[in-house]
C-alpha cells in the first residue's frame, strides 16, 4: 500500500525489495492435504459497524470466499480436563462473569483515558472487578477472550491502549473467516496489479524485486544505500522500511549510523506476539460437526495448553481438518520441539476428548512464526508501560528512513487493516516531504541526551540548562549517554563473540 500510494501521487521511481519469492507477507496460505489453509492472517476482523473496514471492501470487491464465524456457541462446546463435554448450565455462569468483566474493562479503560490516569494491565483491571481466573474452566474462558485475539496474556497487556478494541468499535463485531482457494493474499496481489506491470496474474514489473533480503542500510541527509544478502546494492533518496517489528527487534538488518536510542528502545518495548495455528488432517471426523460446533475449548490445569480448537467442516465439508491455536510461551515451546512430539501431545488431548480409538492424523502442519527470521513473531500487542508518545516514535522517520507496517498503526496494530492503513499514511507523509518539502522532524519528546546530533537536543538543553545547575546537568547527561553507549557496545561485543562460528 505504501508503494501504491506513492504511485497514486505520481511518484513512480521506486523499487520494492521483498525477501521472499512472493508478496503478501503475513497473509500467506498453503496447500494442506489438498485444501488451502491460511497459516497467517485468516479473518477479516471488524465488520458490520459504523464504518466500513477497508479490507472488507476489498474482500467483497475481489469476491473472496468467506464464512462468518459464530463464536457465541462456544459456551456449549467446552470440554473439561477429563474430556467431559460440560453442560451449558455449568459453563454459562462463568461466561456471563467474563462478559461482565470485559464490559467493565472497556468502561474502566475509557475512564482512565478520559482522566489521563496511569495505565494498568488487563489483569489489574480484572482484579479490580473481582475476577481472578484460576480454575481450568475460568482460565480457558479467559484465554479465549484475550489471548486468542491478542496472542499475549492479560497480565502484560495495556488496558488503556487495547480495550475497548478500536477494530470492533470502529468497524463492528463481526469476523469473517477467509476460506478461498486463492488465499487471503489475493487481496495484496490484486492491489499490486493496480500499479505494477503484469501479465495475467504474474507481476513482471522490474520495480518489484523478489528474493532480496535487506541486510544493511546506510543513511544520511543525502540518501540511503541498501545492501541485500545477494550482495546487490541499491541507492535511493528515501526508503520506507516495512519489515515486521520482529525483524526490527532482531539484528537481521544493520544500520550505519545505528538507529538512535529512542527508536531502538521503542522497538524493544513493544511486543511481537506469537500466534500459531496447528493444522491436523484425519481420515474421518470424530469431533462434533453441524451448526454451532465450529469452535470448542479444552480446559487444562496449564493455561493455554491446546485450549482453542476449530474444525473446517463448515468451510470445507469432508476435509476432516481441524486446527488448534496456541500462543506466546506455548508457541515458543512448540516451535522448539519436533512436529512428532507436538502431534503426540495433541493426540493425548484429543484422545481425552473423543476416546482412545480415534485415528492418527494423516498430516500435521506446525508454522514457526517466531523462528522465522523474516517475521520474528506473528503480530504486535501493546504492552503495559508504552505510552502513546512512545508509540509515536515507532513510526517517526529517522532522516530519510520511513517506517510502516501494522506495528505503526496506533489504532489497528496487529491487523491486516492496520497494515493497509499504515502503508497509506506513511507514504502520504513521505509524499508531503518529497513534493511539498514538509518533512517530518524527530519530535521533541525524544530522549535528547541519546541523540546529540539533532538540533533539538541543543535547543532543549539550552532551555533547561542554566546557572549553577548547568554543569551538573551536562555531566549527568554525558555520563548517562556514555553509560548507555558502553552498555550497548559491550552487549554487542558479547553477542558477536557468542555468534562467531566455533
Ligand atoms: C498467525 C497469524 C494470524 C493472524 N491473523 C490475523 C487475522 O485473522 N486478521 C487480521 O486482520 N490480521 C491477522 N494477522 C496479522 C496480519 O497478518 C498482519 O498485521 C499484517 O499482515 C502485517 O502486514 P505488514 O505489511 O505490516 O507486514 P508483513 O506482512 O510481515 O510484510 C513485511 C514483509 O517484509 C518482508 N521482509 C522481512 N524482512 C525483510 C528483509 N530483511 N528484506 C526484505 N524483505 C523483508 C517479509 O517477507 C514480508 O513480506 C495475523 C498474523 C499472523 C502471523
UniProtKB/TrEMBL annotation:
<keyword id="KW-0285">Flavoprotein</keyword>
<comment type="similarity">
    <text>Belongs to the flavin monoamine oxidase family.</text>
</comment>
<dbReference type="GO" id="GO:0006598">
    <property type="term" value="P:polyamine catabolic process"/>
</dbReference>
<protein>
    <recommendedName>
        <fullName>Amine oxidase domain-containing protein</fullName>
    </recommendedName>
</protein>
<dbReference type="Pfam" id="PF01593">
    <property type="entry name" value="Amino_oxidase"/>
</dbReference>
<dbReference type="InterPro" id="IPR050281">
    <property type="entry name" value="Flavin_monoamine_oxidase"/>
</dbReference>
<comment type="pathway">
    <text>Amine and polyamine degradation; spermine degradation.</text>
</comment>
<keyword id="KW-0560">Oxidoreductase</keyword>
<keyword id="KW-0274">FAD</keyword>
<dbReference type="GO" id="GO:0050660">
    <property type="term" value="F:flavin adenine dinucleotide binding"/>
</dbReference>
<dbReference type="GO" id="GO:0046592">
    <property type="term" value="F:polyamine oxidase activity"/>
</dbReference>
<dbReference type="InterPro" id="IPR036188">
    <property type="entry name" value="FAD/NAD-bd_sf"/>
</dbReference>
<dbReference type="InterPro" id="IPR002937">
    <property type="entry name" value="Amino_oxidase"/>
</dbReference>
<feature type="domain" description="Amine oxidase">
    <location>
        <begin position="1"/>
        <end position="429"/>
    </location>
</feature>
Amino acid at each position: 500500500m505504501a508503494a501504491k500510494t506513492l504511485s497514486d501521487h505520481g511518484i513512480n521511481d521506486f523499487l520494492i525489495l521483498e525477501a521472499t519469492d512472493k508478496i503478501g507477507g503475513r497473509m500467506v496460505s498453503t496447500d494442506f492435504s489438498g485444501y488451502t489453509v491460511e497459516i497467517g492472517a485468516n479473518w477479516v476482523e471488524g465488520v458490520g459497524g459504523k464504518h466500513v473496514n477497508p479490507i472488507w471492501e476489498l474482500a467483497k470487491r475481489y469476491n473472496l470466499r468467506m464464512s462468518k464465524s459464530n463464536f457465541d456457541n462456544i459456551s456449549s462446546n467446552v470440554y473439561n480436563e477429563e474430556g467431559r463435554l460440560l453442560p451449558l448450565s455449568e459453563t454459562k455462569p462463568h461466561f456471563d462473569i467474563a462478559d461482565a468483566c470485559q464490559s467493565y474493562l472497556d468502561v474502566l479503560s475509557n475512564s482512565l483515558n478520559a482522566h489521563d490516569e496511569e495505565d494498568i494491565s488487563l489483569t489489574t483491571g480484572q482484579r479490580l472487578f473481582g475476577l481472578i481466573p484460576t480454575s481450568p474452566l475460568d482460565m480457558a474462558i479467559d484465554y479465549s477472550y484475550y489471548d486468542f485475539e491478542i496472542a499475549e496474556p492479560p497480565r502484560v497487556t495495556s488496558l488503556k491502549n487495547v480495550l475497548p478494541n478500536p477494530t470492533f468499535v470502529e468497524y463492528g463485531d463481526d469476523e469473517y473467516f477467509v476460506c478461498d482457494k486463492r488465499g487471503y493474499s489475493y487481496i495484496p496481489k490484486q492491489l499490486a496489479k493496480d500499479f505494477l506491470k503484469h501479465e495475467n496474474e504474474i507481476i513482471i514489473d522490474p520495480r518489484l524485486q523478489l528474493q532480496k533480503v535487506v541486510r544493511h542500510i546506510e543513511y544520511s541527509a543525502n540518501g540511503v544505500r541498501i545492501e541485500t544478502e545477494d550482495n546487490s546494492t541499491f541507492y535511493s533518496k528515501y526508503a520506507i522500511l516495512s519489515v515486521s517489528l520482529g525483524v526490527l527487534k532482531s539484528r537481521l538488518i544493520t544500520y550505519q549510523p545505528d538507529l538512535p536510542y529512542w527508536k531502538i528502545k521503542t522497538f524493544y518495548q513493544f511486543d511481537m506476539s506469537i500466534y500459531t495455528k496447528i493444522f491436523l488432517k484425519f481420515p474421518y471426523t470424530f469431533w462434533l460437526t453441524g451448526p454451532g460446533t465450529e469452535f470448542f475449548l479444552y480446559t487444562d490445569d496449564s493455561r493455554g495448553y491446546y485450549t482453542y480448537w476449530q474444525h473446517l467442516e463448515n468451510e470445507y465439508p469432508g476435509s476432516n481438518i481441524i486446527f488448534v491455536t496456541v500462543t506466546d510461551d506455548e508457541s515458543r515451546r512448540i516451535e522448539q520441539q519436533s512436529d512428532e512430539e507436538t502431534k503426540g501431545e495433541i493426540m493425548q488431548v484429543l484422545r481425552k476428548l473423543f476416546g482412545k480409538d480415534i485415528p492418527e492424523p494423516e498430516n500435521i502442519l506446525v508454522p514457526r512464526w517466531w523462528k522465522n527470521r523474516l517475521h520474528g513473531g506473528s503480530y504486535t500487542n501493546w504492552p503495559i508501560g508504552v505510552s502513546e508518545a512512545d508509540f509515536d516514535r515507532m513510526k517517526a522517520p529517522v532522516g530519510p528512513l520511513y517506517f510502516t507496517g501494522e506495528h505503526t498503526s496506533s489504532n489497528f496494530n496487529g491487523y491486516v487493516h492496520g497494515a493497509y492503513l499504515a502503508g497509506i499514511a506513511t507514504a502520504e507523509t513521505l509524499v508531503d516531504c518529497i513534493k511539498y518539502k514538509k518533512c517530518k522532524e524527530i519530535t521533541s519528546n525524544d530522549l535528547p541526551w541519546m541523540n546529540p546530533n539533532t538540533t533539538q537536543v541543543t535547543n532543549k538543553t539550552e532551555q533547561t540548562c542554566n546557572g549553577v545547575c548547568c554543569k551538573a546537568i551536562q555531566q549527568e547527561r554525558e555520563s548517562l549517554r556514555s553509560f548507555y553507549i558502553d552498555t550497548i557496545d559491550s552487549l554487542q561485543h558479547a553477542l558477536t563473540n557468542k555468534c562467531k562460528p566455533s
